[in-house]
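Session log. Operator J.P. requested a structure for one protein chain; no other inputs attached. Running the standard single-chain path with token output.
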Amino acid sequence: MNRAYRDTVSDKCLWHLLSVFVVGVWMALAVSSAEAQSPSPRVVLETHGPVGQIRQLRFSGDSQRLYAAGLDKRVHVYEVGWENRGGGPPALTRVPPMDWEQARGNRGGIFALALHPNAPEMVLGGVGARQQTGDIAEFDLATGRVSGCVPTPAERTAAAKAQRIGTEGHRYSVMSLDYSLDGTRFVSRDERGGMFLWDRQQGGGFQGTRLRPSGPEAIRFAPRAIFSDNQTLVYSRRENDARVRLIARSIRTGNEATFTEDYYERVAALTRDHRGLFWASADARGNVYVSDIRNPANRFRVRSEWPHVTSVAIGPTSFAVLSNQFIDGRVGKSIVELFDLTTKQRFDSLVVSTTENSLAVAISPNGRFLAVSKEDPREILLYSLADRRSNPNSKPFSTTPAVARADVLSTRVLALSEDGTRLGFGPDERAITSALELVHGEIATEQIPRDDWVLSKTDPPGWQVVRVDLPTTQVKVVD
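Structure written below.
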């Protein structure tokens, strides 16, 4: 059976090509018998890190792991520790990534991720590719595999038969996820403002309650929601007068109260610390509001360096604000700033990108590490906020370079050999540095031909790769 593959190669959509590409070709790889019988064989390039824009960074509750996810449809996992058994600097060690969806186009891109506060469980959402765009995947972190889908396919089917479409779960891309502090429920929001509360059931799975319906179109005010405590949600809403406000909603009674601040254009960031002591929000003019959950009167504002705040992270003693010079991907600087929670003063800052917007920052629950995404080139930078004895570093950015970097494989080009027996990879079209031998399923890195390659086109409609039924495995380029 022939299977077509189309794609284009550019820096902006590189993740489409390198994260996963599907070709209709049999490969004699070392796979299980069940996988060998699959009607949709795959070639997966191990990139050693994110190759698409990083949208989320999260530390585990014990601060020993860092999770990174975004547009390349994978959750990349790193162990966070110290080199030489504690005698050296901090280090990031890559461990096997976790896959959600492998699909064409933007389907499978990850926009939101939340970690259970106490159990090895994670939920993530974005552009679903299994049944509905708004599917939420549940992961078992002990196995690194998907353990469920929220809502389940059976619940989707039952709702469709009863003509209750949209009441059982999101139909549009999920943009925000957050667990309650006790882990008994989580809240989700989609790109059209829909909001669901998911309660854990004794027999397993989650029961969803729709708190707000989705609107007729995608909205720019950035629908978000978090738990400020186990019984209270804080979420963004556009009022009838077009003002964007934050709303506090009681889960028990459904009563709502409106915060007084107007958020210019959008609630650009909304987050809570791991201990449940502080939460923070930001607008598109650089205003960042920090609230003390124990003392609501202790709510203060700071200003970020640049107007477009993309992420805020809160640690035990400090909080970080990541902001960009321009909105909507235009060229500009990205800067991360550190503020003291007690004095409310900025004590350090760092420009992390100069040509691409960075979107994610995280502080470990123990307060020792800060991770931030860098997009030019794409890296994850790890800084030490405190030493192994928890003594704070007063200038973590200014006095020392990043203590660890999570680099990615420098592969930007996919090519096909003229005889159709090899797939080649390399940093550019003049340097194919490795090749997958389709007949034997082996990777070769030595004696790679310099000019025996058919390169993918950079303009539509791209090229197709189809299977050729010959005694030996072969693929063919079709115009």
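Operator note: The chain has a mean pLDDT of 81.
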